[in-house]
Amino acid sequence: MNHSRRKAIKTGGGVLAMLFAAGVIGPEVVLAQNLGESAFSMKTLAEVMRAVGAQSPATSDAIVIKAPSIAENGAVVPVSIESKLPGTESITLLVEKNPTPLVASFGIPAGTEGNISTRVKMGQTSDVYALVKADGKFYMAKQEIKITLGGCGG
Amino acid sequence: MADPMRIRAAVRDGVVNVKVLMSHEMETGQRKDAAGKLVPAHYIRSVSATYQGKTVLSAQWGPAISKNPYLEFNFKGGQKGDKVIVIWEDNKGEKRSDEATIA
After folding, report:
1. The pLDDT value given to residue A2
2. CATH code at position B94
């Protein structure tokens, strides 16, 4: 009767163990970004911001999001983020109206430039946020991308 | 085993531009199959790139990165002829490591 509950608890423990293992294997990666797997399952932007430690990041002109303002296919939306902020440590990409807003987080070691390009899925028209940690502080920029065909339902 | 990544690395004015195309389903876990059952999530969870043993990029991904993920970044100080190694790991523990020579 309680099998699914037990299974859920077991799985939860497994996830924790995996996180722990990840921490042991790659401490520098964890330190650089400090994001648990759980952040990827959070449902709102505010939750993710809190989890990342960026309650109210300042908007910065030094962060540029390069993306189409209208994307036909939400399954493949090209997004580039460029941070001109000195001491950029990480770049986090969020899509506000996706089922889980956190898309990706990139750790930028010294010597690597603050520009990243990738392709993301978007379920519907939404604001896309670039959250940049530079010199220990959070900054952000956002841009709306209109979607004519959603990419999350497949 | 997943298909190999396609990696291009080229140096220009002391900056290495790296482009990576990975081959992966990137299943979100929100999609239903023809029978109406949820297709389990299967996506690349972490990516890292190293140059001469030093990490030049690390990334944590969720399932919202597009199928067959594309990634481009730039780092300083790479030499022509040296290798850049890219490694990914998905949520099922599958791993793939490929390398490219800087052109």
Report:
1. 55
2. 2.60.40.10
Residues 27-66 of B with CB under 8 A from A: 28, 30-31, 45-46, 48, 54-66
Of A117, A119, A152, nearest to B28 by CB-CB distance is: A152
- A57 CA to chain B: closest CA distance, Å? 21
- The residue behind tokens 């077991």 is A10
CB–CB of B45/A35 below 8 Å? Answer: no
Low-confidence ranges of chain B (pLDDT < 50): none
pLDDT at A151: 59
Q: In this structure, what token pair is assigned to residue A20?
A: 């722990």
Neighbouring residues of A76: CB distance < 8 A, sequence distance ≥ 6: A119, A121, A151, B66, B67
Domain A34-149: what homologous superfamily?
SoxY domain (2.60.40.2470)
Four-residue CA torsion sign, A97, B94, B73, A73: negative
